[in-house]
Amino acid sequence: MTEPYGTVKFYADQFADILADVELEGHYEDSADNIIQGFYKAIDGWLEYHKDQSEAYKRMKAKVKAALDG
User: Containing domain of residue 24, as a range?
Assistant: First the structure.
């Protein structure tokens, strides 16, 4: 059964799935580094997304202001 979204148990299960991929030796012996780099890449992606979204909101605000002031 899937735990309710947003609960501690839900996130623990998500992290457990990722940690299960860590291998010391074998085909994916660089898995720990890949997981860490993937985490950084995900954070950078969200930061870029929110920066872009912030710019979109600023443009929308300017259009609304121009329409209301015009």
Answer: 8-69
Residue 20: closest CA among 9, 30, 31: 31
* pLDDT tens-place string over residues 7-43: 999 999 999 999 999 987 777 779 999 999 999 999 9
Integer Cα distance of 1 and 9 in angstroms:
12
Residue pointed to by tokens 């860490």: 36
Residue 2 lies in a domain: no
**Structural domain count, the chain:** 1
Reading the block at residue 38, the tokens are: 């993937």
